[in-house]
Design brief:
This protein is of the alpha/beta class. About 45% of the residues lie in helices and about 15% in strands. It is built from 12 helices and 10 strands.
Length: about 270
């Protein structure tokens, strides 16, 4: 079962999912595709998001992956059901795991969700939360400026706090104790977000819960990589944009050496 786990994202955000997979399943090989050249997905029409997502998926299927994680919330809202029905391998999204985690954490039943325009417009998080608990009060906010902040690599630039403050300003009058980071890019700037909303608010990243779900599914299907006490994972990273910038962000976040290959998903998925 040394076939790898595929992870797709609109850019570097899915690295938050990859990091949790590395932590929880260190024997597994990861094949990651970040579509940085066409990021962000949030403002794009759903059909375009679908097309781009399927291109990345087709590319990774050529590498004989055994499971697929859709690390981009916008993409998951558009294609998760279709791809789950289309493929005979496990397909894991990030929205329902994030909703479950938020439900477990909230004490007041008041939850806020921030995400891209596409994710918020889809209503996917509100639907997932209310499916679990119809009494949950949900406040949703699109934050289109945050993904470009992360993709620029300014993860420690204090000017970033001003961007986050402006993006989250509409939440200042809202009452909530739990905030879902409804875009996998956002955990990379979690310290900025926590500073703005305050320590009384619990931040929820869907990455940990999604990786746990993957682990459970692979265990039940007897698809986990084995090898005794030896960890010999081989990871591959692909990006449609600047490979040097991608590697810089990936190495800092994952704390491993990363080699990224630049590919054109529209051409290489054919």
């Amino acid at each position: 079962m040394k076939r790898g786990i595929g992870i797709i994202d609109s850019g570097v955000g899915g690295l938050t999912v990859a990091k949790e997979v590395l932590r929880q399943l260190p024997r597994e090989d990861i094949l990651y595709f970040g579509d940085t050249a066409r990021c962000p997905y949030g403002p794009r029409p759903a059909e375009e998001v679908r097309e781009f997502s399927l291109q990345m998926i087709r590319f990774l299927l050529q590498h004989n992956i055994k499971a697929l994680m859709i690390g981009c919330n916008t993409a998951a809202a558009v294609v998760l059901q279709e791809v789950s029905e289309m493929l005979d391998i496990p397909v894991i999204g990030v929205i329902e795991p994030g909703a479950r985690s938020a439900i477990k954490e909230t004490e007041t039943g008041r939850i806020a969700v921030i995400g891209t325009e596409g994710t918020i417009r889809s209503g996917a998080y509100a639907a997932a939360l209310r499916k679990l608990n119809p009494q949950i009060q949900v406040t949703s906010l699109a934050c289109p400026t945050l993904v470009p902040l992360v993709e620029s690599g300014r993860l420690h630039d204090r000017e970033g706090i001003a961007i986050v403050q402006e993006a989250l300003a509409p939440l200042s009058g809202e009452d909530f104790d739990t905030l879902i980071l409804g875009c996998t890019h956002y955990p990379l700037i979690a310290p900025f977000i926590q500073e703005v909303v305050g320590d009384s608010v619990t931040l929820i990243s869907s990455a940990e819960e999604a990786a746990r779900e993957l682990s459970t599914v692979l265990w039940h299907r007897r698809m986990l990589a084995n090898g005794g006490d030896v960890v010999n994972a081989m990871h591959q990273f692909f990006t449609s944009g600047d490979s040097e910038l991608f590697m810089s962000i990936a190495e800092e976040w994952l704390n491993i050496k990363v080699q990224a290959k630049q590919v054109d998903p529209a051409a290489d998925a054919q």
